[in-house]
Amino acid sequence: MAKAKDSSAPILALNDVSKVFGGYRALHDVSLNVYPGQVLCLLGDNGAGKSTLIKVLSGFHQPTSGTLEWEGEEANFKSPKDANDRGIATVHQFGGTFPLMTIGRSFFVGVEPTKGWGPFKRFNKKYANETAVREMQALGITRVTDGDRLIGSLSGGERQASAIARAVHFGAKVLILDEPTAALGVKEATHVLRIIMQAKLKGIAVILVTHNVTHALTVGDHFAVLIRGEKADDFKKGERTREQITDLMAGGEAMAELEEELNTLTGTINRVN
């Protein structure tokens, strides 16, 4: 297995990115750097702006203001396909797979391998099935041996593995994972986290979007916390405790500041009296 790349230059960067919908400000001056071979954990509660941010990163939304840089040059992703062509792959919760498709078909949807020529060209089922199973087993999903199985028959963790294996197979440089461990049991979540580490070791930049602090601390190298569309904190592994991160996500710092202000005000009133 290839060693993780140690690059001092970000492969993807956001510079003061804001996104406004009508009169609603979903993101405000967010700056982030994403490095090859590292896991950036994007943390925040519901409504923090995580979904909007990954849609900007994946080309679904364009920034209202601010810029994106790809491999050191300013970039404008006009569509998800545009971002995907650059090497940005997004895997949504449960893998974004097609339950009634076979594993082989789902793995190659949109880029179907064929055999034959002209009017006799047809889907190369054997190649698709063998490739899909091989790539999934390479990520540790050894229980899957038949590419003709329906995606819907797989567990949540196996669906995630299928989607991640597909992204890696097609050369993803940045892998965005949107709540990949949500609704999974402990064993399956652990396996997904292990797969994330494998992607990291291949030199892929991983953006893990989650509200699960424990999972983030298990695999993360860098962390950013969003609150109401703004970046509330940005730190590296080991610079914050689990309790500090949880407290921040829950608005604990704001409560602490309010309590300090109240104590100061109370002290002032007591002195006056």
Can you offer a commentary on this structure?
With 273 residues, this protein is of the alpha/beta class. Helix content is 37%, strand content 25%. It is built from 9 helices and 12 strands. It has helices spanning 50-57, 80-86, 103-107, 125-138, 156-169, 186-201, 213-219, 242-249, 252-272, and strands at 12-21, 24-34, 39-43, 65-70, 73-75, 88-91, 114-115, 122-123, 174-178, 205-210, 222-227, 230-236. It has a 6-stranded mixed β-sheet with strand order 6-9-10-3-11-12, sandwiched between helices. The longest helix is centred in the C-terminal third of the chain and has 21 residues, at 252-272. The model is unreliable at 1-6 (pLDDT under 50).
- The end-to-end span amounts to 72 Å
Percentage of residues in helical conformation = 25-40%
Portion in strands? 15-25%
CATH architecture annotation of the largest domain: 3-Layer(aba) Sandwich
Helices, by number, come to 9
Q: Within the largest sheet, what's the order of strands?
A: 6-9-10-3-11-12
Low-confidence stretches: 1-6
What is the tally of beta strands? Answer: 12
Q: Strand-and-helix sequence, N→C?
A: EEEHEEHEHEEHHEHEHEEHH
